[in-house]
Amino acid sequence: MRNLSVEIAGVALKNPVMVASGTFGSGMEFSEFVDLNRLGAVVTKGVANVPWPGNPTPRIAETPSGMMNAIGLQNPGIEVFKKRDLPFLEEYDTKVVVNVVGKSIPEYVAVVEQLADSNADLLEINISCPNVKEGGIAFGQDPRAVEQITKEIKKVAKQPIIMKLSPNVTDITVMAKAAVAGGADALSLINTLTGMKIDIHRRTFAIANKTGGVSGPAIHPIAVRMVYQVAQAVDVPIIGMGGIASCEDAIEMMLAGATAVSVGTANFRNPSICMDIVAGMEAYLERYDISDIRQLIGAVR
Ligand SMILES: Cc1cc2nc3c(=O)[nH]c(=O)nc-3n(C[C@H](O)[C@H](O)[C@H](O)COP(=O)(O)O)c2cc1C
Predict the structure, then answer these.
(1) Whole-number mean pLDDT of the chain?
(2) Contact, 254 vs 223, CB < 8 A?
(3) For the domain with range 6-296, which CATH number is right: 3.30.460.10, 3.20.20.70, 3.40.50.300, 3.30.390.30?
């Protein structure tokens, strides 16, 4: 038996494969295609203290080797989420990571407080959404703000905290160090890269928000580079994501320094891709006679 399990801040995952926030709902829609019990963890769509309507449509567009979105973190708010989504996930033998959003520190703190008595195993704090005007990205692009929000959340959080970093910065290691200085237990990266697409026939923006977040295979090499840089700079576990669409991409991310990986946009093309990636990891360990997947983490320096 080869070991596929990894640990994030004291939480054991049966394998390193998670789904990226916002691309998998809370698993309900996907449970027809994916045996959620096979996943290391399910990461939910971002949830705020009150319902958010999201941005005007159109909110998505295709790009070469990827897509662009400006959903604007539409979500039903923490009360509905706790009644509807968390009980559904409790039925499965997988870890639950709740992605938290807000427009101010008190809003983030309110959600985290409401999750204290829940079945969430880990909290992923999204300070990096490029599609929300106030808060969100504003926190993720300023190291002092990253440290401060991390500290305030750590004061009230009952679960370990994963800070989700933005790639839309000059040096992502500065943000990573700030999050760790604030007490982050783990980091996840990368969120989407800000892009723009113009519809030349309608002569207007393809997305009503004008800009959107680019995701998918197009951003994968950038994500690998950033995970590598952050792994060299800090000493907390990293969840690597960005364009992972195959087992090879996931292994590459782990070799760069990720302890676990999240699969996002690829779920839209192939809803059962995560199970293929888990099976591919088993086969990779077998092929190269590696007894423990943890031997791959950061093995390429
Ligand atoms: C449609 C869509 C919605 C997303 N919603 C969220 C979200 O609610 N919270 C969050 O932290 N990231 C969100 N993201 C970012 C993804 O979790 C991920 O960081 C990014 O898409 C890169 O991974 P990928 O290339 O595998 O999709 C979203 C991405 C997409 C494509």
Answers:
(1) 95
(2) no
(3) 3.20.20.70
Instruction: For residue 78, report the distance from its CA to the centre of ligand 1, in Å.
Output: 19
* Per-domain boundaries in the chain: 6-296
Nearest C-alpha neighbor of 160 from the set 41, 79, 257 = 41
- Of 6, 129, 149, 258, catalytic: 129
∠ Cα 277 279 282 (to 5°):
110
Nearest atom within ligand 1 for CA of residue 46: 8
Annotation says 129 is catalytic: yes
pLDDT of 131 reads 67
User: pLDDT tens for residues 13-31?
Assistant: 999 999 999 999 999 989 9
Q: Report which residue type is found at 223.
A: A
What spacing in Å lies between the alpha carbon of 153 and ligand 1's midpoint?
A: 22
CA gap 217, 215 in Å, rounded: 7
pLDDT digits (tens, 9 = 90+) for 234-243: 999 999 999 9
Ligand 1 atom closest to residue 124's alpha carbon, by position in its atom list: 11
pLDDT tens for each residue of 133-166: 555 667 888 999 999 999 999 999 999 999 999 9
pLDDT attached to residue 1: 80
